[in-house]
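Translate sequence into structure tokens.
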Amino acid sequence: MSLLNFVVNPFFFLLIFLSGCAKNVGINKDINHNEKELDPLERVNRCIFVLNRFLDMTILKPVAAVYDKVVPMPIKKCGRRIVCNIKTPIYMINYGLQGEGQKMSESMASFIINSTLGIGGLADPAKDVGLHNDTTGFSDTLKRWGVERGPYIMLPVLGPTTLRGVIGYGVDIVLDPLFWWDDYRYIGYVTTAYNFIDKRANLLETTEDIEKTSHNLYVTLRSLYKQKFLKNEQ
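Result follows.
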């Protein structure tokens, strides 16, 4: 079972639900023209947002709250380093596709050093010697190639992105060496789950503040996404 199927198959049944939901969910009449242009799939996106909200409130947020309270910061940092190290081959390949030879070399060196001297990423000796392992993905590669971002899309569990981002997610999964290594594919499942929980824990205070002050949470989150990720993009 591939990681792509692991993420997508549980939500296959939603296709029927969404086809009916799209006819019944209202749209904010005050949305401006630019927002409409950004979000032509708003009806369907709102349905998925309702699902994500339900899953977040019942599963992800409670788990993240316990994780944030119980797990010491040093262990959290070790976990983040391990996740980053495991994903480094994806960064390395994408930097190569982007024509970023230096960043590709730094990612490769960082992966080798942290996988050996850093014991699989528990430590980050590559950083100590001045190597930078910046994150990237196939969505960034498509952007470098001149591919437009496309419409705003709300994915089940994964949250907001664009059409280009959806393609990027899929290709990055295939670029992951663990995708092809059956005996160790479970590592990808574990690190993906950990990454979700860790990132959600980091956003606990922020999301609570937004929930308290927002009159329309869907529109607020879409605007924040646009400001943070889509500024100056084509």
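Note: The longest helix spans residues 42-70.
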